[in-house]
Amino acid sequence: MTSAFIPTFTRRLAREGREPAWRLGNLVINALLLVTGVVVIAGIVFAGPITRTFAPEFANVPGKLELTADLTRVMWPFLTTVVVAVSMMGMLNSLHRFFVPALSPAMFNVATIASTVLLVPVMPRIGLPPIAAVAFGTLLGGIGQVAIQWPRVARGGLSLSPRPGPARLRTCTPCSA
After folding, report:
1. Residue 94 gets which letter from DSSP?
2. CA 128, CA 73: separation in Å to the nearest integer?
3. Portion of the chain with pLDDT greater than 90, in percent
4. Distance CA 158, CA 39 (A)
5. Which tens digit of pLDDT belongs to each residue from 92-149?
6. Three-state DSSP class for 157?
7. Which of 61, 18, 7 is nearest to 156 (CA)?
8. pLDDT for residue 12 is more than 80
9. Contacts of 112 by beta carbon, 8 Å cutoff, 6+ apart
10. Model confidence band, residue 163 (pLDDT cutoffs 50, 70, 90)
């Protein structure tokens, strides 16, 4: 992803300007949201069979297989957050903005540690095992990676839209044929 998208984004930025580069960024993020969204939904639906396939020995301990599948379901959306965060990181780096993208992965650690400290004691009171706090922390960390970069990317010119827009359709030669 990084080796293909970032040079393309940077080249488009240098040759055609910000608007076409941001349009490309929008298309890439939308495609990533769509593809990873499908994978995430499938992962959530099939977490039980996936867990049984990769960790069949967990069935030997009562409740372990089910717990692992449940934690897997909670963490699947992290995939989507991390690909969006990496895309934003690359776009910001192309604009010579390095601090926020470098800080972004730390959000994962902060969220995981904070969730562990704050939520582990709460989990049993709401009927969840304490380890669920770490799973929720993982997901919050992914959301944090996107959230910390979003203001910078939006300020730079990215405006997420579910469609490419008329300007994109006019520049697509095969589309006009």
Report:
1. H
2. 14
3. 81
4. 25
5. 998 999 999 999 999 999 999 999 999 999 999 999 999 999 999 999 999 999 999 9
6. coil
7. 18
8. yes
9. 134, 137, 138, 140, 141
10. low
pLDDT-derived band at 78, boundaries 50, 70, 90: very high
pTM for this predicted structure: 0.84
Alpha-carbon distance 175 to 118, whole Å? 53
Q: What share of the chain is helix, strand, coil (3-state, %, to 5)?
A: 80, 0, 20
pLDDT at 35: 96
**120: amino acid identity, one letter:** V
Q: What are phi and psi of 127, to 5 degrees?
A: 85, 20
Give residue 165's pLDDT. 47
CB atoms within 10 A of CB 69: 19
Residue 129 per-residue DSSP state: -
How far is the CA of 129 from the CAs of 111, 120, 133, in angstroms? 18, 8, 8
Domain-wise residue ranges, the chain: 2-164
- In our burial notation (b when 16+ CB lie closer than 10 A, e otherwise), range 85-96 reads bbbbbbbbbbbe
Q: Using CB atoms within 10 A of its CB, is residue 118 exposed (0-12), middle (13-18) or buried (19+)?
A: exposed
Least Cα distance to 81 among 134, 40, 46, 116 occurs for: 40
- Tokens at 109, concatenated: 């650690």
